[in-house]
Amino acid sequence: MPEDPFETGRVFTPRVDRYGRIAVRTNRCSVPVRLVGKRVLVLLHASHLVIYDPNAPNTTEVPCV
Prior knowledge:
mainly beta
């Protein structure tokens, strides 16, 4: 086992559409409306998405359905 932790998810940078949603592979998720037209950093894991908002200190975890 490696001593340093490493990320196992895949990174995507989708653009937020005019409805306040992002598309990552086959998943569509809502994000805050203030991000419409901007790109967000998304980390895709096997069971959930982690959405990083550049202007907020916290992240959003969304289950994949």
